[in-house]
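Example record

The entry below shows one chain as it appears in the dataset: sequence first, then C-alpha cells.
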Amino acid sequence: MEERHEQKELQKSINRKTVIWFAVAAAVILLIAQIESVKSTLNWLGGMLSPIILGVIFAYIINPFNVFVQKRFFKLFSKVKRMRPKARTRASNALGIICSIIALLGIIVLLLFLIIPEFLESFAKLIEIAPSFVRDAGEWLGSQLSADNPFSEHLGELIDGLVAQLTSWIGGELSGIIGGLLEGAMSVVTFFINFILSIIVCVYALIEKKSFLGQFKKIIYSMFSISRANDILDVARYGNSVFGKFVSGKLITSSIVGIITFLFMSVAGMQYALLSAGIIAITNVIPFFGPFIGGIPTAFIVLLTNARHGIIYIIFLIVLQQIEGNIIEPMIMEDKTGLSKFWISVAILFCGGVFGLAGMVFSVPIFAILFYVIKLAVERSLKRKGLPVASCKYQDVGEIDPESHELLPPPSTDANQKHLRELVLEWKARIFKKNKADECEDKEKSDNEE
C-alpha cells in the first residue's frame, strides 16, 4: 500500500511538472508569435509608467549615499541627549533624503551645464565649416564624375537617386516641419514634467523603502512554502548585490574613461574635448557595445575638423577600450556577474533588440540573475543524485555508472580505429576472394570451350 501511495504521489508530481512546463512552453511560443504586439504594449506601459520607473531607478542609485548620510546624522544626533530615539531616526532619515536629492540634482545640473554649452558651441562650429566641407566634397565628386572609370558611372547613379529622394522629401514631407517642431516642443515639456514627477517618486521610494521590503517579504511567505520563499529571497538578495555592483562599477569606470578622454584630447589640442568625453562616458555604461556607440559619432566629428586628429583619436579610443576592458573595469568590478563574454553579447543583442537602449543597459544583470537561478536548480538536482557539482568534473565525461555514480571517460578511439582496420581488411579479403572466384569461373569457361 505504501509503495502504491508513493507511486501515485510521484505520478502526480510528474504530471504537475509536465503541465507547468507545457504551460511555460505555450506562453513562450505565444510571446514569440505576438512579439510585435508585446513590444508595443511594453512600450506603451513604459511610456505611461516612465516617471515611476525613473524615480525608482534614481532612488536605487542614490540609496547607498542616502544610507551613508543617514548614519552620519544619526551618530551626530546621538550626542544630543534631549532627543528621543524616534526623533533622531526621523531627523537623520529626512536630512539624508534631502542631501541625497540635492546631490542628485547637483550632478545632473552640473552635467547639463558642462555638456549643453559645449554641444551648442560644437554645433555652431560644424555649421561654420559645413560650407567648406560641402564645397570640397562637390569638387571631389566633380572630379570623379569627369573621370572615365566604372566607379564614376555608379557614383552618378547614386547621386541621381539621392537628388530624386531629396526632391520628393522637399515636395511632400517638408510641409510637416511645423507640426514636427510643435511635437518636439511638447516632448520637451513632457520630459520636464516626467522628470519632476520622477524626483517626487524617488523621495517617496526612499521614505517608504523599509515598508515596501516588509510588504514584499510578507507576500512572498504567504504565497509560497517557507523553503521556496527563502530561495526567492536569496535570489532577490543576490540580484540586488549583482545589480548594485554592476551599476556602481559601471558609473565609476565610465567616469574614469570620460576623464581620461577629456585629458587626452585637451593635451593633444583636439576640439570638442568636453563633448566627446561626455558622450563616451554616457555610452560606456552600455556593456560591450557602448564604446562603439559613443566612439563612432565622436570620431566622425573630430575627423570633419581635422583628419590627423581624427586618426589619432580613433587609435586612442581603440587603446582606451582595451585598457578599460582588461585593466580598469576588472579592478573596480572585482566580483564578476558570472557571465562569459559570449552570454554577455547574447544578452545585449537579445534585450537590446526587444527593449531598445534600456534592454542593453539592464540585460547583463538580468541574465546574471537568471543564470544564478538555473545554477541553484542544477546544483540541487545533482546533489540529490549524489553527483559532483563543479562543471570541470564533467568536461571529460563520456558516461556515468548508474549504480556507483562513477564518472567514466568516453570510449577510447583506439578501439574504433582497430575496428575500422578490421573492417577494411574484411572488405579487402572479400574483394580478393570475389576476384579469385571470378578468375576461377573464367578459367572453367575457357576450359569448357576448348
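Notes for this example: The chain has a mean pLDDT of 75. The first strand starts at residue 399 and ends at 400.
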